[in-house]
Amino acid sequence: MEHDLSPPAVVPAAPESEPELEVLAPPTGSESSASDRASTTQVATAWILALSVAAISAAGLQYASKQTDYGFFLLALCIVIVFGATWSDVATRRIPNVLTYPAIILGFAFNGVLPFLVERWHLDTAEVFLGASGTLECVQGFGLCAAIGIVSFMARGLGGGDVKLLAAVGAMIGFASVVAVLFNTLLVAAVIGILNWLVGGTLMRRLQGLAHSIYFSIIMRADMREVYRFRPTESPFALSLLIGLISAQFVALHQRIWEVSW
Fold first, then answer.
1. What pLDDT is attached to residue 41?
2. 3-state DSSP percent of the chain in helix, strand and coil, to 5
């Protein structure tokens, strides 16, 4: 009996199959737009709140100053917007477009379109309460602030959000009022910059940490490492603009009350 001494045939092992990747179904329309709807809802809510606060503040100023020929709604709205921009700028070093672009549009609408409609419908009380500076003042204020902002942006003195915020302020309060605001803002920025430099930048770092904690505990959650810190020679422009705006309008309001009382 013969034996087959040849080596047994080697059967090649089947290659191991790669693990199958899980194929996820594309998000449905409702899922993909859920975050967009949430963001839109937050923006709309913030603007409704800003308009409400401005209206209540304007009414309070109207009553306290006993003014019958001049209103404060646009001024109050401008301060509320700049306050929100300051908070965001200090906390995140960013000023959102959802704040600046609508502010510019509202500046032109409240100073140009709405007064025409109010006058046409003979709503004298609403016209006074609005405190509009007029179309020409709006265009001149916007043009001046936009020009200064663009030049500063090209010189790397301001960011894009700063330029849009400055232009929005010019459009809302007009040329005559914004000149004093610009002067005060320049002085305030110099003082803040010098103070921050003298303490080695700790002033802005502490302010940024506080604003960041409040901002993200209310609006969203993020790590402080994700935010650019201010250098010792840097300070948020929106903060200087807010102080300059309030101080200039405070002086103007007292002058107006003084004129009325006399």
1. 84
2. 75, 0, 25
